[in-house]
Structures are given as C-alpha cells and as structure tokens.
Amino acid sequence: MSRVTVIGAGYVGLVTAACMAEMGHQVTGMDIDQAKVERLRAGHMPIWEPGLAELMEANRERLSFTSDPTEAYRDGEFIFICVDTPPTYSGDADLSRIWQVIANLPPEDGTRILVTKSTVPVGTGAAIRAELAAKGYRHIDYCSNPEFLREGTAVHDFMNPDRVVVGADDSAICERVGTLYQSLDAPIIQTDVASAEMIKYASNAFLATKISFINEIANVCEATGADVRTVAHGMGLDKRIGPQFLQAGIGYGGSCFPKDVSALKQLAGNSGYHFQLLTAVIEVNELQKRRVIGKLKRHLGDELRGRRIALLGLAFKPNTDDIREASSIVLASRLLAEGAVVVAYDPVAMEGVRGLLPSVTLCSSADQALQDADACVLVTEWAELVGLDWAKARAVMASPVIIDGRNALDAGRLRALGFTYEGIGVGNPL
Ligand code: UGA
C-alpha cells in the first residue's frame, strides 16, 4: 500500500483516485474548487462516468478529498498531477494549472515522486525538473505516467490497460511508480520522460488519423457506391491495421483528440517541423461534421430555412455527458446559420448545450424531438437512441428522413418502415 495524492478532481483525477484506492492505496484527492470537494465528500459525483460512483463508494475508507494543498501534500509519497491542460488560442497546451501545482509543492523534506498524468507537450517534464532544481527541491523526483483512458469506459480502461507507461531519468523512479500498478495485468513500459510524453501524443494523433482516414474512405465510398463498413471490416482483419478506430462517422470530438492533435502539430511547428499529415487530419475532421448539411439538402431541398431538424445525441460519444468539441455543436450551429429550427435530445448531455447554444430547443425525450421533424440526424449512438421505436417515430415525423451520422441504425429495417435513410459512406452515391 502506498500513499497517493491526486491533484485535480476532473475525469482523469477522479478515475485515478478511485482506481488507485481500488488497488489498495491510500488516496487523497485535491481540487481547488471547494464546492466540488464538498460535493465529493457528501458522496455526490461532479461528472457522469459509468462505474465511478460505485467504485468510490466501495473504497470510501481509502479515499478522502480536500481543497487544502497543505493537507493534500502532507502524506503523499506519490503526487499525481491530473489537472486539465486546455488549448490556448494558438493551439498550444495551457500549462498554467500544472505550474500552480508546482508552486504549491511543499518545501520540507520527505522524498516524494511527482507524477504527471495530464497530457503535456514533450519537454514539459524537463521544464518541471528544471523548476524543481531551481527551487532546490531535491526531495522531489519526477515521472511521466500518461493516461490512456476513454471517457465512458475510463474505469475499465484504468484497471485493464494495454500498457502502463512510466518515464523518468532514473530507472529506480520508474520501478517505484510501476510498483503502484503491480496488481494489474499489463506490460509496464519504462522509458525517459520525453518519450513517455510523446507516446501519449503520438497515440492520440494516430487514432485520430485512423478516424480521419476512414472518414475520407467513407466519402469516396459514397462517390463510388462502396460500403465503408465492409471496407473497414476487410481492412481491420489485417493484423497490421487492426479493426479499431475505423468506424466512419461525422467526425471525432471530445476533450482529447482535437486538443492533442492540435497541440502535437503546434509542438512540431514550434520545433521547426511542419507536420503536414496532422493538418489534413484536422481539416478532414472539420469538413466531416459539415457534410451532414449537404446530405440534408439532398433530401429536403437547398432551402433549410424553417425546416425542423431533430438532432439525436449531443455528447461527443455515448456514455458521457461531455460535449466538448462534439460534432453536435458545429452541426447545430451550421443548421441555425441556415435558418433551420433545431430541436435536440440527449440522454444526459443537455445542460452544457443549454448555455452554449440557447437557440437550440432541448426536448425531454427523443419522441418529443422527433415530433413534426422534417429530418433527424443520429449524432451520438447512445443505445437508447439506436433502440428507439422507429415505427412510432415514422408516424410522428413530418417527413421521414434519417441521416445516420454513426452508421449505427438498421438501414434495411428503417427503409422497410418507409424512411429515407442515409448513413456515412454506406453506398449512397452523390
Ligand atoms: C481518447 C483516447 O481513445 C484515449 O486513449 C485517451 O486516453 C483519451 O482520448 C485522452 O487523451 O484522455 P476519448 O476522447 O474519451 O479517448 O474518446 P474515444 O473513445 O477515443 O473517442 C473519441 C472520438 O472519436 C469520439 O467522438 C468518437 O465518436 C470518435 N470515433 C472513435 C470515431 O469517430 N470513430 C471511431 O472508430 C472511434
């Protein structure tokens, strides 16, 4: 058992804290947001992540929360930095919250290892080590230990990782951090700090590239009558390619891919290298969100003004309440710009949209959103939405047009019900 302090009670911090406690460690979670800490102490979850509340409840005796840095750092042998690193206007990562953590580190002795889980540009660890040295903090060692958690399955991903990456100057530090994970059945990659940082960026950028690649293949499939689902299946069986992240759709979103692809491109640019491939990955993704407008116009006519369009799903993917960089936001904004009446429903992610896009009418159910709609777009493939009573939907819609933005619906059945169905890259020649 080790004593672990986790700084930041967002997605990464809360999952790290709960899973570290589940692995038997004594964990103190720290967040500067006092109200959030109070809610956590009262057993309320500030985020919606499947299985997390239950895991926290089950490990209550090994898990406490505070907003007081002194209390948080007092006993921690390992101090995990899990604060967010949002993009700045230039596309760089904003590291101000990380520097705040460094400023609050305790000056007194007692050896500790500072472990960065937040995604940070390559070179950040070196800068942190230089800062620690400048402060004379010889009692604090440093390790990079990037996270590879997906929202919606973060607890499962933490407890069943494909690999654990630990990067430090000294292999003894890697060993010690690796020991925290010894109860997990996963290879531990020990490396230097810069390589650990790069593994995280390169992994996210590669996955985003896979998605933009298959989305472009989907667009060519549409022009040629091929079916991208079969193409992806045929490609994915090649072990060198693999089946994952080849699901064509209306673009990737979330707090990670858009931010990290842009940050890696920026990092390369700042280092004098023009990362052309990532420029294309980003542009393809932006265009992919907007292609839905063309699809709607093909079925409804060029004039979308006054047409009622139902968006089903707003979260950037199912099983999360996160709408950051969600395709729904761009799509809704484009539709509003065309003069359409946009109605929307999401099983959990409506609060954020209320403030962001007040002109979107939010409905309390999918059925309500579909009432009198001229078309509907499946934006997020929530099970609840895929499993709707589509015969009933057909009866209440003004015109039965479905754009399936995630190729998640049963096209044959919907067509049999009288719908005009269009997916992404599934043999709908332009
Ligand atoms: C992603 C990575 O998958 C994690 O490994 C990483 O740790 C995390 O970012 C992070 O950096 O913190 P996440 O953003 O939660 O995780 O979501 P993903 O499941 O990767 O999906 C991202 C987006 O890609 C979603 O909008 C999803 O709909 C889209 N996607 C995914 C596709 O369009 N097609 C696919 O085949 C897969």
* Extended strand count: 14
Q: What bound compounds does this protein have?
A: uridine-5'-diphosphate-glucuronic acid
Label the overall shape.
globular
- Based on CA atoms alone, the radius of gyration comes out at 23 Å
Oligomer type: single chain
Distance, first to last CA: 61 Å
Q: CATH homologous superfamily of the domain at 3-191, by name?
A: NAD(P)-binding Rossmann-like Domain
Mean of the pLDDT scores? 94
Low-confidence stretches: none
What's the CATH class label of the domain at 3-191? Alpha Beta
The CATH topology of the domain at 3-191 is given as Rossmann fold
Number of discrete helical segments? 18
CATH architecture assignment name of the domain at 3-191: 3-Layer(aba) Sandwich
User: What structural class is derived from the secondary structure elements?
Assistant: alpha/beta
User: Strands across the major sheet, in which order?
Assistant: 3-2-1-4-5-6
Strand content: 5-15%
Q: How much helix is in the residues?
A: 40-55%
